[in-house]
Design goal:
Helix content is 38%, strand content 15%. It has 490 residues and is an alpha/beta fold. The strands form 4 sheets. An 8-stranded parallel β-barrel has the order 1-2-5-6-7-9-12-13, surrounded by 7 helices. It binds beta-D-fucopyranose.
């Protein structure tokens, strides 16, 4: 693994790819996936009326479900990549509940689910419940990626969960006091363990690199903390936020153990299984560095949003009262299951201001971006990527993939610069700081369904014609290909 300082060459075997997720990119052609909390959420009339969601539907999406082979071919031929990051839709695989498959569940003295034993007869039962057509389609998608020279990275949980586990409208209306309350219940962890085991068992011959959970903090914050309430179930309660953050962090460990146990087949140099958490790490600074309240709040936000989940997964620190101190009862070492790599999603810098909100978790705000902003209002700050990479490696000592990095820019005016400047910071992290970064995934391959904001933010390297589904390359495609095909930034 050598590299040349002047030419900014990346280590041999570095993975270059783009990232997509199932809910955001699959629909638009073929059978839509209607059985998830996110489907229910974005179509709920009340949510649309009050502006929690845009009113757009994922059925108008890029149609990757049918068009995957051309898309993956394009990742290779037009982008020069050697990898792709995609996710698998839990609701497509298990449209019906798996809760009757009785597995042996161990709980600790605090009643936390801490281990699942899934045996061959459980696996047979899961097999009977799984949707064979959906599984077959995922096998075809992954095989196509491999055929086109792309090492797949598969995310197990990129947000939608089956409706039978999470009815987000009922949860919204009962403030989480309903049976299908998603990540508020550790029952969801058990089912996620079964799903992960099944995926590893049935797709493990095609996949080695797994992202367990995508951005636990975003799921918890946007579902249980923000005023707009834009993610399911749209609640605004620090206690529920913490419960969700805890359970989604624990979900990593559940999946980690199952994938290690059920995927024994080597599909690439990473095999048989290389399993990591995907975390969003952003730069936070005080809005007014001269204001001690802003300074304190900025540090608090950094702790809660960047560190909390990683401390949980790597150190077993579950700071449940969010006071920045881990008391003895909050250290749960037996929940540390392992993490082979860390996926880092990095986008921007946030200027934190303090506002009176009672609970500290309700006392932060972000200054609107006024300087160098994306059209989504996210402040562009490439140096922050190097900083979070160095910080995360220094602290958690795992190899890293940049699993997402990108910009919403419909006119494609800032994207080339954004891409090059961020890739340059990755190179510095490797060369100057000695961080073992092993790959970079641009978010996203093509314009897609941006959750509660629908089709407005345009993150793609390719534009998608809504009617014909034609992929139209933006000029950034060439810039990406230059870098990826040469494995260097010239
Ligand atoms: C990340 C998500 C991804 C996409 C980008 C813009 O938080 O993981 O699905 O929405 O933001």
């Amino acid at each position: 693994m050598g590299w040349n300082r002047m030419e900014r060459v990346f280590p041999e075997g570095f993975l270059w790819g783009t990232a997509i997720s199932s809910f955001q990119a699959e629909m638009g052609r073929g059978e839509p996936s209607k059985g998830t909390d996110w489907w229910a959420w974005v179509h709920d009339p009340e949510n649309i009326k009050v502006g929690r969601v845009s009113g757009d539907s994922p059925v108008d999406g890029p149609g990757f479900w049918e068009l995957y082979d051309d898309d993956l071919e394009m990742c290779r031929s037009q982008l020069g990549g050697n990898s792709v990051r995609l996710s698998i839709d839990w609701g497509r695989i298990f449209p019906e509940p798996t809760s009757d498959v009785e597995v042996n569940v161990k709980r600790d003295k605090f009643d936390n689910v801490c281990q699942l034993d899934i045996d061959n007869s459980n696996m047979d039962a899961l097999e009977r419940l799984a949707d064979v057509d959906a599984l077959t389609r995922y096998r075809e998608i992954l095989s196509s990626a491999i055929r086109h020279g792309l090492t797949p990275m598969l995310t197990l949980y990129h947000w939608p969960i089956p409706l039978w586990l999470h009815d987000p409208v009922e949860s919204r209306d009962t403030k989480g006091n309903c049976k299908a309350n998603g990540w508020l219940s550790q029952g969801t962890l058990v089912e996620f363990g079964k799903f992960s085991a099944y995926v590893a068992h049935r797709l493990g011959d095609l996949v080695d690199v797994y992202g367990t959970v995508n951005e636990p903090r975003i799921v918890a914050e946007h579902g249980y903390l923000t005023e707009r309430g834009e993610f399911p179930p749209g609640l605004n309660d620090p206690e529920l936020f913490l419960r969700c953050l805890k359970n989604v962090s624990m979900a990593h460990g559940m999946a980690y153990e199952q994938v290690k146990r059920w995927d024994k087949v080597k599909a690439s140099a990473y095999g048989p299984s290389y399993v990591g958490l995907v975390s969003v790490l952003q730069s936070y600074v005080p809005a007014d560095p001269g204001n001690p309240d802003d300074v304190r709040m900025s540090r608090y936000v950094e702790y809660m949003f960047n560190e909390w989940g990683l401390n949980a997964v790597f150190h077993g620190d579950y700071d449940m009262d969010a006071d920045m101190v881990v008391e003895p009862g909050e250290q749960l070492l037996h929940l540390v299951k392992g993490c082979d790599f860390l996926g880092v999603n990095y986008y921007s810098l946030w200027r934190v201001k303090h506002k009176e909100g009672g609970h500290p978790l309700l006392s932060y705000g972000f200054e609107p971006c006024t300087g160098n902003c994306s059209e989504y209002g996210w402040e562009i700050h490439p140096e922050g990527l190097r900083e979070v990479l160095a910080w995360a490696y220094g602290r958690y000592r795992r190899p890293i993939f940049v699993t997402e990095n990108g910009i919403a820019d419909a006119k494609d005016e800032k994207r080339v610069r954004y891409l090059r400047s961020h890739v340059e910071q990755v190179h510095r992290a490797i060369e100057v700081d000695g961080v073992p970064v092993m790959g970079y995934y641009y978010w996203s391959l093509m314009d897609n369904f941006e959750w509660s904001d629908g089709y407005r933010p345009r993150f793609g390297l390719f534009n998608v014609d809504r009617d014909t589904k034609r992929r139209i390359p933006k000029k950034s495609v060439e810039a990406y290909r230059e870098i990826a095909s040469k494995n260097s930034l010239l």
